[in-house]
Structures are given as structure tokens and as C-alpha cells.
Amino acid sequence: MYLWGNLKINCMKKLVLSLLAASALCAVNAQTLVNGDFEQTATPLLPGVATNCPGWGPGFYTMDAMNPFAGTQSAKMQTTVNHAVNVQLGLGSDTIPGFIQQDVPGSWANIGNMSLTFARKNLMPAGDTAIIVAQFIDTMNVGPNDDVVLYQAYGAYVGNQQTWTTASIPFSAITGAVGTAKLLTVIATSSYNAVFSGMPAIPNGQFWIDNVAIGMSGANVLEEVASINVFPNPTTGLLNISATEEVAEVSIYGMDGKLAMTSATNNVDMSTLPNGIYHYSVTTVTGKVVKGKVAKI
Fold first, then answer.
1. pLDDT higher than 60, residue 3
2. Is residue 48 situated within a structural domain?
């Protein structure tokens, strides 16, 4: 399946940018995603509807501090019905799909060996699909309508998945596409219908994402067939780890990268560690590894 809703996405971006004329957009100069863990301070634009988050910019999403995959918050996209926002922005519909996008200009090598990795959960109504897609594009330096998508990785999700699940999706070359990658774009939405197909969004679709990254593929990355839940996060001491594969070892690292402690069980006692943000690394008995952040308070 080849996802490309360029005209619809450009229209969506223009509508998003109209949220606040004074809303500052920071240019992304690095050749990697910025703030993929959504831990940087975000600015609400329209309460419960729209946010401006570093790296991702303005969009129809919010920061959710309730049970993030790692750290203190995740990004939540929700398809809402809001007549007042429709009138304010001239959206053309009271049903507003959740939408977030980050564009990263640059140049890359060995894209065929890269993967899109992320954690997600979803609560989707019948008739619509949550989507996260990453594409490497040759922008052709003319306009958006002649862009050539060279590589793509995407996940499509329906129904209810109320615990965090991790995924590592390899990039696939688009058959017949020729060019030089000049732009990486990552898009997530709670409505495939509205963003990619031109059909009406279905209200109340919810899609959460966290720890979004682009990197080299590796056999030791925990794939979507396995999942992990780390709770409570933040924790005051005891950190519980629930996984679909048996856990062999849990390692906790400080923000300086130094090993703080290890555990051979699913229950990690962090009560002796100072308060702060830590990285965890969970290794399963089959050698797969899941990494993330946890806050000790």
C-alpha cells in the first residue's frame, strides 16, 4: 500500500498554521527527528484540540500525561467535533481529525536499512483507521505537487489497543521512484479517512504515539508482535514491567548514560535512586530489547 495524500496534507498544514498568526515555528536543521519522545515543553493553542510542540510545530493534537509510554507525556491525536473551532478556522467540517507532522530536510544514506520505530496505543471507532507514516522524499525544488516519494514506512491501526505496543517498521523503496532524498516527513493522524482518502472522519478516534525515531534496522528491536507496559510512570519507587515475552534483564541508566542499577525480575525497586529522569533497557529471553524513559519522583 502506498500512502500519499499530498494535496490533503498541505491543506491540513495550512489550516493548522492558521491557528495563531503569532505562533512561532522553529526550523528543524538537524537530519534527525526533534523531540520524538515529546518531553520538551509544549504550548496549548486551542485547549483540548491543538498544540504547538517543539520539533512538531502546531497541529491538532495534545500532550497527554496520563500513563505515557516513557517519560512524562505522549502525543495524543483525537478526532473531535467542535463547531466553534470549525467556524474560527474555516475547516469546512465540525469533525476535526487529530494530526501531527514533522518535516526534516537533509540528505541520508542507506535508507533501505532504516526503520521507523515508535510506541503506540489506539481507541478507534469502526470505519476509520489511525495512521503513522514516514517518507523520504525528493522535493524536486519546484512545488509540493511534483514531490517524489522514494521510501516509505507506515503502520495502520483499527479497533482498540489500550496498552502500549512498540513497533519497528522497515522502510520500503517505492517501485519506480527515482531521485535523491531531500526531506524526511513523519505524519500521524487519528483519521485515515480525512487525511489520506478524502472521506469524512469518524468522531472519537484516539491515537497515542511516543518515542518516535528513525534509525538503522536491527534484529534486536522489539517488533509489534511483542509489547511492553512500564508502570507506574512516573514512579515513586517500584517500577513494574509487563511484557508478552519473558524478561531476562532490566537495566536503568542515568541521564549521563551511566548504569544506575539492574534487575533480573519484572519488578524494579528504584526507591534508592535520586529523583529524576532515567533511561530503561528491557531485554527479553529471546534477545529483543526495548528502551524508553521513566521518571522517578
1. no
2. yes
